[in-house]
Amino acid sequence: MKTVAPALQNLLLEYIQGKRNTYYIADLYVFWLNYGLSYNAGFFNNGHILTYTGCDTDLTIGGNIYKHLSIEHDDIMEQRGVETNETNIKIYYSPTDKVQQLNIPWLQALRTGAFDACYVSIDRLFSPVPLHIMMGNISSDYVLKARFYGRVDVDEARISSATLTVKSPTELLNTQLPRNEVIPTCINTFCDSMCTLNKQDYSYSVSAQAGSTNISIATGLSKDDHYFDQGSMLCLSGNNIGTTRTIKSYANNIAVPVQPWGLSVSAGDSFVIYRGCSKTMAACEAYGNLTHFRGFPYLPVANTLL
Q1: How far is the C-alpha of 266 from the C-alpha of 288, rounded, in Å?
Q2: What angle do CA 127, 132, 137 make, to 5 degrees?
Q3: 28, 86, 169, 253: least surrounded by Cβ within 10 Å?
Q4: Could you tell me if residue 206 is inside a domain?
Q5: What's the angle, vertex CA 229, arms to CA 224 and CA 232, rounded to 5?
Q6: 208 and 164 co-located in one domain
Q7: pTM for this structure?
C-alpha cells in the first residue's frame, strides 16, 4: 500500500465527491545515475539525479525543477508477492538535445552507458490548479511518489529516440546461489577487497596517439606484449568520456578492446589503462598475492567410464 500526504488525500476525495471534475495530472521521472562526469579516485560518480516531466512545460515541485521532456511509459502493473514487474519508458529527443546536468547529447549518454543499471522512480503529480507555463512552485504533497520504481536497462538508443526497460528491484532475487563457485580460477575480482591489491598501483595515464580508432588505441607506452591483456580502459575525455572497455589484447603498444568504443576516438583523448589478471595461480603468484588466491586448481577432472 502506498501512503500519500493529507493534501493529496483531500484532493482525491473532492474528485470522488464530485466537487471537482477535471484532473490536472503530470507524470514525473527521477533518474539516479551511476556516474556523472566528475572524475574522482578512479570513478565517475557525482550522485547525479535527473528530474524530468512529460508535461508540456517545466514544473517546479517542492523546490525541485522538473524539466520538460518528450517522455512516456507503458502501462504499470503492480501485484503482491515477489514477482518481477516491468514497464517500458520511451524518450524522444533531437540530436542536439543534451542530458540535464551532464551536458552531453542524449544519444551519446545512452550509448556510452550513463543510464546503464541506474534507478528510476515514476511519480505522478495531481495538481490542484491547471498546469501552465507561468505557474509557481507546487507542493510535493500533491505527488504520488514511487508509482513505479526499478532498475533501468537501455534496450534501444537511436538518433532521435530511445526505449528503456525498467524492472522492479525484485529482479535481484534471481541472483544465482551459492554466491561463491568452486572453480579452478580465482573467484575474486582483480583488486577488490578480497584480492587486496590496489588498482591504482597498476594504472597508467595515456593519451590516444595518431592512428587510434574506436577498435584500437595506440597508447604510446613501452610495455611488453600481453602486458594489459584482460585489463580495462577508462576514457577521461573526448566523445567516449565515462566509458570503460575490457582489453582483449595488447601488442606493439596498441590496446584492442573486446567491444569497440561507442563513438569515434581522436588523437589526444585521455584514458586510464589498468592491468588485468587471468585469475590463475601462476598469475596471482606473479603479483605476489598468492595468499589471497581463492581458486580450486586441483579439482578432479570429470572422466567418463566406458
Answers
A1: 37
A2: 60
A3: 169
A4: yes
A5: 120
A6: no
A7: 0.66
User: What is the rounded CA–CA span in Å between residue 281 and residue 294?
Assistant: 9
State the CB neighbour count (10 A cutoff) for residue 9: 12
Q: Which residue has the cell 507561468?
A: 134
Amino acid letter for position 169: P
CB 116 within 8 A of CB 151: no
Report the alpha-carbon distance of residue 171 to residue 106 in Å, rounded: 27
Mean pLDDT by 10 residues, the chain (306 residues): 85 89 91 60 58 93 93 86 88 91 87 86 92 89 92 92 93 79 90 90 94 94 92 91 91 94 92 94 93 90 68
Q: Across the strands, what pairs with 138? A: 61
Number of compact structural domains in the chain: 2
Phi, then psi, of 109 in degrees rounded to 5: -65, -40
DSSP state of 230: T
Residues 14 and 138 in one domain: yes
Provide the 3-class DSSP secondary structure of residue 99: coil
CB 23 within 8 A of CB 15: yes
Rounded CA gap, 176 and 181, in Å? 10
- Whose cell is 515477489? That residue is 82
Give the count of alpha carbons within 13 A of 261, CB side only: 28
Q: What is the pLDDT of residue 77?
A: 82
Neighbours of 265 (CB within 10 A): 21
The SS3 assignment for 140 reads helix
CA distance 207 to 160: 32
Residue 257: inside a domain = yes
Of 171, 187, 214, the one marking the end of a domain is: 171
Answer yes or no: do 19 and 162 share one domain.
yes
User: What's the pLDDT at 84?
Assistant: 85
Domain boundary among 153, 171, 189: 171
Strands 64-68 and 59-61: what pairing? antiparallel
Statement to judge: residues 93 and 141 lie in one domain? yes
